Amino acid sequence: MRSRLLALVAALSALPLALAAAPPAHAADPTTMTNGFYVDPDSSAKRWVAANPGDGRAPAISASVANTPTARWFGSWSGTIGTATGAYVGAADARDKLPILVAYNIYNRDYCGGHSAGGASSPSAYTNWIAQFAGGIAGRPAVVVLEPDSLGDYGCMTQAQIDEREAMLTGALSEFNRQAPHTWVYLDAGNPAWASAATMATRLHEAGVRQAHGFSLNVSNYLTTAENTAYGNAVNSELNARYGYTKPFVVDTSRNGNGSNGQWCNPSGRRIGTPSRLGGGAEMLLWIKVPGESDGNCGVGTGSSAGQFLPEVAYKMIYGY
């Protein structure tokens, strides 16, 4: 990216001062500013492979999971958040690669489900956190998935809590627009099994998706790419009919190779899906959840905690059993 930026600066220097001083358009395409997606060098799968070189499962997990470009999730465990996001996107930028980040720290996170409960201590704490998150990225290219599950998790919430959450998301999008001009932000929209397309379009709009680059689908879930593409198109039809605009969308394909068996929490018999790439019926197919990371204390991950890497689960996902 740096060589392209130097060329841009040189070109701007020849322009009239008033034009050269104008700020860049928001969200220049980060996929054209980089050469492929970034592989997280410190993912849970990478760490497990490095710590278990003699394990018979390690070669397959290394080849099929640990070296596939996958998102890194950021939350309360990330330390000083601006430093953390800055270091991550900086490392990717130094390699001319596009990093995928997940912001997962909203106040009252997973309020109804509870398996991934937590998040910021208050709405104001979240506002400060997400502002630092965006500031750490600054002008470098990135993709951000904003708060998985946040718009599907309404079943036990009061209207006041819903309004509060939507205000936090709208504010977050404003921060990325202000501070991270080369970041594509996708506001999470759950999955086809969670809410109707009409309901999700309303929730997206009320949470400010007009400010976002797009929306994300199937994060940490197992539904097929075809199901998600049909749903994304239906959501866009509703957005267009109700509000007069549409948005690009991305699909998490990390664990949807066998589709869903109707269970969402560590189901058996699932398989890794199409690795991160452009296109595929959506704007991008991305690995957002690391295959093998637990959804919580449930299913084949009984006894584990959300986010814990389970090598046997990852190994079985490679082969679909």
TrEMBL record:
<dbReference type="InterPro" id="IPR001524">
    <property type="entry name" value="Glyco_hydro_6_CS"/>
</dbReference>
<feature type="active site" description="Proton donor">
    <location>
        <position position="149"/>
    </location>
</feature>
<keyword id="KW-0624">Polysaccharide degradation</keyword>
<keyword id="KW-0119">Carbohydrate metabolism</keyword>
<dbReference type="InterPro" id="IPR016288">
    <property type="entry name" value="Beta_cellobiohydrolase"/>
</dbReference>
<dbReference type="Pfam" id="PF01341">
    <property type="entry name" value="Glyco_hydro_6"/>
</dbReference>
<comment type="similarity">
    <text>Belongs to the glycosyl hydrolase family 6.</text>
</comment>
<keyword id="KW-0732">Signal</keyword>
<dbReference type="GO" id="GO:0004553">
    <property type="term" value="F:hydrolase activity, hydrolyzing O-glycosyl compounds"/>
</dbReference>
<feature type="binding site">
    <location>
        <position position="194"/>
    </location>
    <ligand>
        <name>substrate</name>
    </ligand>
</feature>
<dbReference type="GO" id="GO:0030245">
    <property type="term" value="P:cellulose catabolic process"/>
</dbReference>
<keyword id="KW-0326">Glycosidase</keyword>
<protein>
    <recommendedName>
        <fullName>Glucanase</fullName>
        <ecNumber>3.2.1.-</ecNumber>
    </recommendedName>
</protein>
<feature type="signal peptide">
    <location>
        <begin position="1"/>
        <end position="27"/>
    </location>
</feature>
<feature type="binding site">
    <location>
        <position position="289"/>
    </location>
    <ligand>
        <name>substrate</name>
    </ligand>
</feature>
<feature type="binding site">
    <location>
        <position position="73"/>
    </location>
    <ligand>
        <name>substrate</name>
    </ligand>
</feature>
<keyword id="KW-1015">Disulfide bond</keyword>
<keyword id="KW-0378">Hydrolase</keyword>
<keyword id="KW-0136">Cellulose degradation</keyword>
<feature type="binding site">
    <location>
        <position position="293"/>
    </location>
    <ligand>
        <name>substrate</name>
    </ligand>
</feature>
<dbReference type="InterPro" id="IPR036434">
    <property type="entry name" value="Beta_cellobiohydrolase_sf"/>
</dbReference>
<feature type="binding site">
    <location>
        <position position="264"/>
    </location>
    <ligand>
        <name>substrate</name>
    </ligand>
</feature>
<feature type="active site" description="Proton acceptor">
    <location>
        <position position="295"/>
    </location>
</feature>
<feature type="binding site">
    <location>
        <position position="221"/>
    </location>
    <ligand>
        <name>substrate</name>
    </ligand>
</feature>
